[in-house]
Design brief:
7 helices; single chain; 341 residues; Neuraminidase
Length: 341
């Protein structure tokens, strides 16, 4: 088969499943009413070394005119799920294809934030999980989870590859942040890194980015308590107050939970952890399973919400698929997340 003309897939992969999820979760209906766009690459991603059918989306951020989405090749999980059900009447041809599928490099999908169209797929130099992505105005940061590191890509280099349409970027610097690096966001003059775990509460660690002769350096400065299994967070201002939304995945079966707070950022100090009990609790929202990062565009104040449930290892498997699949990024307003404010 000639694959040279195949491109990264776009559009909606599971329309009926999404409509069912909207009926089940009123909050999803609210945050998807303004606009949505299909997560690129769910069915097929064209990368430098071939074609990947197992990309799983993770982080999301806005960088200038672009929406950036990280994804990693989750072939090991896909293969494991197919093999688990092979003796129960599974799909032999699908399993054979999975066994022959190679491990591809992780990628950043680039979407034009005006047209909401996929315009480029940029390969990262490694196979990182890429649990989060953020932009500080100069560097694009990729959270590297269990490696406890953050890697920086120069935005100008990313733009060069975007204009070409595809290619690989290099990490200008990789910094050991001495925390889990589950996700990352930017707010104010800090980059924040999720330091969250599966069995205990974690924190979101603040870092000030110092540009030293063109090389970024990170200086730790403040922490905010996070719940167990936090996958992403958003800090944003409404009027003179600051609000925090934290996404917590419920796995494939249980709903995701969004914890919401009003936060006094003047209480965030170096060497201290701001406890959630010291913030004004605004209650929780329920969304479909497998919610990932949430981000706000600092210019337009549009909010983008990402899920991983429509990737092949969780949706295209027999026996244990995700119960409510979301195959698109939902674009909403900040008021949709804090309607009572």
């Amino acid at each position: 088969m000639d694959t040279s003309k195949l491109k990264t897939s776009t559009g909606f992969r599971y329309e009926n499943a999404f409509e069912n999820a909207v009926e089940k979760f009123p909050t999803l209906a609210r945050i998807s009413s303004a606009a949505t766009f299909g997560i690129p690459g769910l069915a097929l991603t064209k990368v430098d070394e071939g074609l990947c059918e197992c990309m799983t989306p993770q982080g999301i951020c806005v960088a200038g005119p672009y929406v950036l989405i990280t994804a990693y090749c989750n072939i090991n999980k896909y293969r494991e799920e197919l093999e688990k059900h092979a003796t129960k009447g599974g799909n032999p041809s699908k399993l054979e294809a999975a066994r022959n599928h190679k491990q591809h490099k992780s990628v950043i999908y680039v979407v034009d934030k005006e047209s909401l169209e996929h315009i480029a797929t940029v390969a990262l130099p490694d196979c990182t999980h890429g649990g989060g992505i953020s932009y500080d105005g100069t560097f694009v940061w990729v959270a590297k989870d269990n490696e406890r590191k953050m890697s920086a890509v120069l935005f100008s280099e990313l733009e060069r590859v975007i204009h070409y349409g595809f290619g690989t970027v290099r990490y200008l610097s990789t910094v050991n942040v001495k925390c889990q690096a589950s996700f990352t966001i930017t707010y104010g003059d800090r980059m924040w890194v999720g330091n969250t775990f599966s069995r205990t509460t974690g924190t979101m660690v603040g870092f000030r980015v110092k540009n030293v002769l063109g090389i970024p350096r990170l200086v730790r400065d403040g922490e905010i308590e996070m719940p167990v299994l936090a996958q992403g967070a958003m800090l944003a201002d409404i009027g003179d107050k600051t609000y925090l939304a934290i996404s917590v995945s419920g796995g494939r079966v249980n709903p995701s939970t969004v914890y919401r707070y009003e936060v006094d950022m003047s209480k965030v100090e170096k060497g201290k952890v701001l406890k959630r009990e010291d913030c004004r609790d605004l209650g929780t929202l329920q969304l479909p399973p497998m919610m990932e990062e949430i981000t706000i565009d600092p210019e337009t104040r549009a909010v983008y919400t990402q899920f991983e449930s429509a990737s092949s290892p969780y949706a295209d498997v027999e026996g244990n698929p995700c119960k409510s699949i979301v195959d698109r990024v939902c674009v909403s307003t900040l008021e949709d997340w804090f309607p009572e404010v």
